[in-house]
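Appendix C reproduces, verbatim, an entry submitted by the partner laboratory led by Prof. M.T., so that reviewers can inspect both the input and the predicted structure.
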Amino acid sequence: MNLVSTRRLLARATGRNAITWWTWIITFPFAMTVMSGLQYVDGGRSLGRAAAVAGVEHIGIGVLLAAAYGILQVTPDRMRAVVALLLFAAVGAARPFVFLGSAALLGIPVTVGELGVRVAINVVTCLSVFSLIAIGVDLVRDHRGVFRRLNAVRQAAEADELAALGRIRNLRAVSVDAVLAQIEDAAAPAMLAGIEPADASRLLRSLANDIVRPASHELYVAEEAQPARQEVRAESRAEAAAEPPAPAPGRIGWLRSVVSGIRPAPALPTAVLFVGMVAPFAVGEYGIGVALGQTPASLIILLLGNIAVAKLSSRVKRAGARVATVLTGYIAVGVLLTVESSLFLRAAGYSTTLIAFQAFVYPVVAAAVALVSSLSVRVRADQSAIEESMQAAVDSAARARAEYDHEREGIARLLHSGVQSELIASALAVGMSGGTPADASAAVRDAVDRIRSELRGARPRTDARTRIRMLADSWRSAMTLDVRIDDEVWGRLDGDDRRCEAVVDAMSEGLANAVRHGDGSPVTLELERGEDDGVLVLVTSGGELASPGAGIGLKDLAGRAEVALRERAGGVELAVAIR
């Protein structure tokens, strides 16, 4: 665990979830069992009286926690961490006195015991347990929010993809299929019965001028095509809305996500934490000499046991079975620790009655640490997944828009240069053929068949210029973006799929970085001529670098280009030289 992780955990332990209802609820089972002070009530012989005192005591602790919560609400942020830890310690220090007050209130005689030792035990326990609970609650709430956002992003991306596919389908329905249907309907009588060649020629010219030409012009001219595009967009949205919505993951989905991410607790920190929690009890009950003699053995058992649990669970692939393996392993380690401690104390001539709590408490503490460490990893992983999903959604939207516009332009060219020319050529041929009505009917049928084959063929791939401009347009909806592209760049990209792909990736990574570390100021994207007929991509934005190291995206780019990410004049510049 490094310094950054420690600070992050401290911030969670003392942050907005430092004291919650869960602090009181989760500690209730401990307050009624291992921390009940049973040994101080009739020498541990009266469980009922001990439970009554422990119950009233925990109510008193709840009052103290409520007061501590109120103090934290008016504590300045810069002092919050220190004040929160002091409040945890204060509640722990007050707990033995609350125990004595609860017993006096109920009229139940109790022994005071070593009050200083009891205070030390409770201070250490409350500091450890309250911090663990606060970290766990904070992580759970953070992860639930992140999990909801991740699923919302993914569902939105899926809906956008369906809508994009619907737009292209509807574009074909509005243009290609509609044009083809009109042609077939108009030509059907001539194809079924004979027709004079002159009439067939006029029919084919009419198909070209009255059906195909207007359709191609509507697609060619942006101002005229815009209403059709709006109609397509509305229809595609209606189609997407008609799709059955994906069920929300809810709590069951979130629990599955948590369970699937559970991993063993860090071996050494968990062992040290538990030994530190038990140390005040051991010193108070058995003396510092016995405690010092027992501590190394306990650390070794816990460390080796935790390592064994980690190795064993790593071989289990199913999430549920892995969690069961981890919990069972920690129970076994707790039992082994209790057996070893009992043998050690018996050899030293001490009673082992009070040491049995380790078999119960250690699995709980280790499981809590495992949950906290696993959730911490899961939160970061899901946050990264959100960024990746958003990036993928932007890329997908850019591709979808490029595909849509390319489809529209391709259909327009096909109608104008292909279908219309085919109809006019066929009209001229049949008009000059001098054939019979049956021959003219066959000529019309052949022309319609050729048109049908042309209209239902595949479209060519999107070129570099279209793809890059569509990607830039997509990002303009998310930021103020100034795009500057040297005209000579296009010649270096056309026909070079590898270089074009690298440029698109560099643009995407640079603009995504601008969103992550930017300050909302305008962003500049430049594509310039590079060395050796290459292309230089420059993305400049405001803000500052969150961390000096390169992320996965930049590392991937570095394998295909020269990458430099640096701070310059109050901003950040990403330079990618692609050769």
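The two ends are 41 Å apart (CA to CA). Additional entries are available on request from the coordinating office.
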